[in-house]
Amino acid sequence: MTISLYAASIPVFKQMLGSLSDLLHKAEAHASAKSIEPNALLQARLFPDMFALSRQVQIAADFARGVSARLAGAEVPKYADDEQSFADLQALLSKSLVFIDSFSPEQIDGHEDREIVTRPGTPKEKRFTAQAYLLSYGLPQFFFHVTTAYALLRHNGVEVGKRDYMGTY
């Protein structure tokens, strides 16, 4: 039985990017209410060798756009990833949602065997079918960064829970 790559990707990315947006709104409100410098949250890390909150959000958005584009056989958009504020990150999430919402099921479904090559021409080059790329690489990477962003906020006192993480579904 074939799964719908569209159903397993686009609605999931939309749900979780919406969740990230809501989490960032709560984080910004928390910083304001507690007189915390916003950058303290935006640059928070779980451990020194991990990316900060702002980078976790950027990477999650990058994966949502990149995976969606590759599944549809479209060009992956390049963004500067230079967001410095909550407002900048919200704008990034909005742009990403508009981009992934532009794909239709017809552009993605039926192309499960499309070859997707990551990091072409480098020692880290990997080749996948579209289905394997989504299920074994794209979704796990995306969820890692969304979950880490959530954990950073929770760890830093932002009152969020599982419902906040799950978003609207």
Produce the secondary structure layout.
Layout: H1 10-33, H2 38-42, H3 53-72, H4 86-100, H5 105-108, E1 115-118, E2 126-129, H6 130-155, H7 162-166
Antiparallel strand pairs: 1-2
Helix pairs in contact: 1-3, 1-4, 1-6, 3-4, 3-6
Short description:
The chain has 169 residues and is mainly alpha-helical.
Task: Describe what this molecule looks like in 3D.
The structure is a single chain. By secondary structure, the chain is mainly alpha-helical. It has a two-stranded antiparallel ribbon. A hairpin with a 7-residue loop joins β1 and β2. α1 packs antiparallel against α3, α1 packs parallel to α6 and α3 runs parallel beside α4. The longest helix has 26 residues. The radius of gyration is 16 Å and the shape is globular. It starts with 9 loop residues before the first helix and ends with a helix. The model has no long low-confidence stretch (mean pLDDT 96).
